[in-house]
Recover the amino acids of this structure.
């Protein structure tokens, strides 16, 4: 049993179960209604019920007064459907719709996904949530005004924890702390969301998604968001690394293509030793993608990698594959000045490694 919910003025619809809030139902199906705390405190999710019945749950009276309720307003993070509904609410469709916030976060879990990759799951305070678009990033705030930037690897609907993929870099001050000193329950401060690298949901074009190393993080968020909203646009995902260990969530990516026929996944290794007996594709990941898709005039491309990789992909996709320039979206990784100086002092040159378009990242 469940109810049909329509949203005005967008005319989007979704299905709500009787035991879940309107907001949870919308997010579960990839529809981004505004919210802040998801706990009936901030009032950000306030909207109007145009028709239908709902139960207001634990809505705080100081946020939603009896007069508001009589006028048809509800807090969608607390209200649950009791019939088919028609609601009036704005939707989050661009970065301008989302406020940038500074929040504390506690390290909930540290997972060594590869010898040089740690996955950090962060937990916000119980009364807080961070709204973001799939593919955006946050800054981890450090002392002396410094910060380090990492993509959010979880989809927006799965925001109980914020997930970061961190690769260890020689000379990287923050990543050294992550690998040598960070512990579960440590406190951090973050600011975000940031970035224009996110899925353009108003398009129906097939998507070519190309990542290398931990550049997989925002690609993962985009794919999982598309799955959640039942998007059936063809998605061709290419993930490149040097060796097998660089593809640290390979089983997850392979599962996408098994469970969803419109998603195609291709792993690529550029420097796999013979002892690995790698049976898959070899070479530069963007070159392999281009070989499979020589004509991209009708595509969108999402590329997350090192500056060199992003630059090469842009030039080759636009020049050789006829990808429209306005359909190329990218995140490129730059090292922080202090990290780059340390690496040069130790004669360790930056290797091709992806993350976001941030000059202050030592990952």
């Amino acid at each position: 049993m469940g109810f049909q919910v329509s949203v005005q003025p967008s005319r989007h619809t979704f299905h709500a179960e009787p035991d879940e809030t309107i907001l949870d139902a919308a997010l579960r199906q990839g529809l981004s209604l505004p919210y802040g705390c998801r706990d009936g405190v901030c009032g950000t999710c306030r909207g109007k019920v145009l028709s239908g019945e709902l139960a207001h749950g634990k809505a705080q009276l100081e946020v939603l007064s009896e007069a508001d309720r009589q006028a048809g307003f509800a807090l969608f993070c607390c209200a649950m459907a009791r019939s088919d509904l028609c609601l009036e609410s704005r939707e989050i469709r661009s970065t301008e719709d989302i406020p940038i916030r500074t929040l504390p976060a506690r390290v909930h879990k540290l997972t060594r996904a590869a010898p040089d990759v740690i996955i950090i799951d962060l937990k916000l305070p119980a009364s807080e949530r961070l709204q973001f678009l799939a593919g955006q990033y946050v800054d981890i705030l450090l002392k002396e005004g410094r910060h380090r930037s990492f993509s959010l690897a979880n989809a927006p609907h799965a925001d109980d924890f914020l997930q970061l993929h961190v690769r260890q870099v020689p000379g990287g001050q923050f990543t050294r702390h992550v690998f040598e000193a960070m512990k579960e329950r440590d406190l951090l401060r973050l600011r975000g969301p940031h970035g224009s690298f996110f899925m353009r949901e108003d398009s129906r074009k097939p998507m070519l998604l190309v990542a290398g190393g931990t550049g997989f993080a925002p690609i993962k968020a985009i794919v999982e968001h598309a799955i959640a909203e039942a998007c059936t646009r063809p998605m061709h995902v290419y993930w490149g690394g040097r060796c097998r260990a660089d593809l640290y969530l390979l089983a997850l990516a392979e599962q996408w293509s098994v469970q969803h026929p419109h998603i195609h996944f291709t792993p690529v290794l550029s420097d796999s030793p013979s002892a690995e007996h790698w049976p898959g594709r070899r070479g530069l990941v963007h070159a392999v993608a281009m070989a499979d898709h020589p004509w991209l005039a009708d595509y969108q491309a999402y590329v997350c990698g090192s500056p060199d990789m992003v630059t090469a992909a842009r030039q080759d996709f636009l020049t050789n594959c006829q990808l429209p320039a306005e359909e190329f979206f990218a995140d490129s990784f730059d090292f922080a000045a202090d990290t780059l100086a340390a690496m040069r002092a130790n004669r360790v040159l930056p290797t091709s490694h992806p993350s976001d378009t941030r000059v202050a990242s030592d990952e």
